From TrEMBL:
Enzyme Commission code: 6.2.1.26
Native source organism of the sequence: Geodermatophilus maliterrae
Protein name: O-succinylbenzoate--CoA ligase
Top-rank lineage group of the source organism: Bacteria
A molecular function (GO) term: o-succinylbenzoate-CoA ligase activity
Length: 380
């Protein structure tokens, strides 16, 4: 008999997370009640359309997570309970055993939902970071024993600047969802924070490669067509999209659109999205690398980089930056800063100044949204 999907609204408080979403996640892991959680705000309407809760659910799916649409549109990723359990069990083994988790990410995204699933598997109750609550206060509420959390790079940067002691109190801080600047990682580790970089997608039940090393049971390969992942953590496909499923899940692998390479020791290095590469003057430029270098400049607090059509170069590199306090970033200073570190083709030819970098509901920078908003705007 076809099963129907239970769709929960985005929780508006820690009590709603623990009282509504956590029990639903437990039932989802048991395979007894398929689940989806809507994002907060305007994205909820589009997510409802993707989920189509009135239509029967595809076989094998226990959790449906709507992606943020960073590749153009959101999709409903169909995850079986077995993938969530495999991911959670392998994560706990890699980190040193079961512990308590601090939830600091939205539970509409796979990273937040996995905090709940790992808590269920560990037999613990997560501590939920409240709206506007200091990280230190939330960490102080966590029980004794091993303590973990998962953050996006923006959160790591913020807490490292304001509450490094709270980060140091945790046994592992998983960081993923977007590329993490090497400089930020080095700074965090120098401060004594147990940072673990994670790579994965919603289709791989979240992070499946930790510090470049695949979790137990996960297999990764990389070639000119991108990174491919295999193993027990994979989704079974996309909601109401058999063609998309057939194109992305081939031969027991999930074909990502991420670029990367495997070193001689088998460690994975991810260089960015194939879709986001800027080809300028015949040279491929990775926006994430340029963003990382820009953030190292003393006048820049944050940055997003993208390409725009250019009659002479094919595409030109465009940077949108958030100034550091009291600073006024200038293109004539930022171009040589980037060129000296990444080469002349990577140097931005256009600069915009933002008050803040907008994010998707998953916490990832909304690079496409920034590019669309700045289309036709003047240069700095």
């Amino acid at each position: 008999m076809p099963r129907q999907l239970t769709v929960l609204a985005a929780p508006d408080s820690p009590g709603a997370v623990l009282g509504t979403v956590l029990p639903a996640a437990r039932a989802c892991l048991d395979g007894t009640a398929p689940l989806a959680v809507l994002p907060a705000g305007p994205p909820a309407a589009a997510a409802r359309e993707v989920l189509a809760a009135d239509e029967p659910l595809e076989d094998g799916a226990d959790l449906v997570v709507v992606t943020s649409g960073s590749t153009g549109r959101g999709r409903g990723v169909l995850l079986p309970a077995s993938a969530l359990r495999a991911s959670g069990t392998a994560t706990l083994a890699r980190l040193g055993g079961p512990g308590s988790w601090l939830l600091a990410l939205p539970v509409s995204a796979i990273a937040g939902l996995q905090v709940l699933c790992r808590s269920v598997l560990a037999g613990t109750t997560p501590t939920v970071l409240g709206p506007g609550e200091d990280l230190a206060a939330a960490v102080a509420r966590m029980p004794a024993g091993r303590r973990y959390t998962a953050l996006v790079p923006t959160q790591l940067r913020r807490y490292l600047g304001s509450e490094p002691d709270a980060l140091r109190a945790l046994d592992a801080v998983l960081v993923g969802g977007a590329a993490t600047d090497p400089g930020l990682l080095a700074r965090a580790r120098a401060e004594g924070v147990a940072v673990v970089t994670t790579y994965g997608t919603t289709e791989t039940a979240g992070g499946c490669v930790y510090d470049g090393v695949p979790l137990d049971g996960v297999r990764v390969r990389a070639d000119d067509e991108g990174i491919a992942v295999a193993g027990p953590v994979l989704a079974v496909g996309y909601r109401r999209d058999p063609e998309g499923t057939a194109a992305a899940f081939v031969g027991g692998e999930f074909r990502t659109r991420d670029a990367g390479s495997l070193g001689p020791d088998g460690r994975l290095t991810v260089t960015g999205r194939l879709d986001d590469v800027v080809v300028t003057g015949g040279v491929n430029v990775a926006p994430q690398a340029v963003e990382g270098v820009l953030r190292e400049h003393p006048d820049v607090a944050d940055a997003v980089v993208f390409g725009r059509p250019d009659e002479e170069w094919g595409q030109r590199v465009v940077a949108a930056v958030v100034p550091s306090a009291g600073a006024a970033p200038d293109l004539t200073a930022l171009r040589p800063w980037v060129a000296d570190r990444l080469g002349a083709p990577s140097a931005p030819r256009e600069l915009h100044v933002l008050d803040a970098v907008p994010t998707l509901h998953t916490g990832k920078p909304d690079r496409r949204g920034v590019a669309a908003r700045l289309t036709g705007a003047g240069t700095a």
